[in-house]
Specification:
Keywords: Membrane, Transmembrane, Transmembrane helix. Strand 5 and strand 6 (about 120-125) form a beta hairpin. It contains five helices and seven strands. The strands form two sheets. The chain has a four-stranded antiparallel sheet with strand order 6-5-4-7, covered by helices on one side. A three-stranded antiparallel sheet has the order 1-2-3, with no helix packed on it. The chain has about 170 residues and is of the alpha+beta class. The protein folds into two domains: about 5-65; about 70-165, no CATH class.
């Protein structure tokens, strides 16, 4: 028996970093009010840490969608795996060359991960576990977190957009 409705639990899980930051602010204010220079400085530090966690939490919250899409995403040892009902695939991050947000005929959004010698993998934005791709995408060299977040606001009529491309590697010959 669940005491919390599934919809409420999904909302809590979507905002978990913000709720943690709120708890940290409460602890920081308590420390600040304890008196003394040490506790005031410690309280300010905790509140500063809470602000940083809240900033990252806001970005991740925008990236998270409902996990109601087809298939699921798994991250393991520098590899993204997508297991879909019709198609799936694996992409090694070391071989990833391009990330594009594309749309299908119905207007659903997909991440297209292109790797050089192999076939590209297309992952629905709302696939189960796709929120973990945010950390993968922003860790790539030269990737901008803001580009991925603003791309999620695009409409199907705007068309596909390439969000990241690996710089060409020079041959050592």
């Amino acid at each position: 028996m669940n005491l919390i409705r599934p919809e409420a639990m999904m909302a809590i899980m979507r905002m978990r970093e913000l709720l943690g930051a709120l708890a940290m602010v409460i602890v920081g204010l308590w420390l600040f009010s304890a008196g003394g220079a040490f506790f005031k400085a410690l309280g300010v530090g905790v509140i500063g840490g809470a602000a940083a966690i809240a900033w990252v939490g806001l970005q991740r919250m925008r990236f998270r969608t409902l996990d109601d899409g087809p298939g699921f995403v798994r991250l393991d040892e520098g590899q993204v795996a997508y297991y879909g009902p019709d198609k799936g695939g694996f992409v090694a991050l070391s071989e990833l060359n391009e990330i594009t947000l594309v749309f299908d005929e119905a207007g659903h959004r997909y991440w297209r991960l292109v790797q050089s010698p192999r076939e590209s993998v297309t992952i629905p934005v709302n696939a189960h576990g796709a929120a973990a791709l945010y950390d993968v995408f922003v860790s790539l060299p030269g990737a901008r977190a803001g580009a991925f977040l603003t791309a999620l606001d695009r409409r199907p009529g705007d068309g596909a957009i390439t969000l990241w491309r690996r710089e060409a590697r020079l041959a050592l010959t």
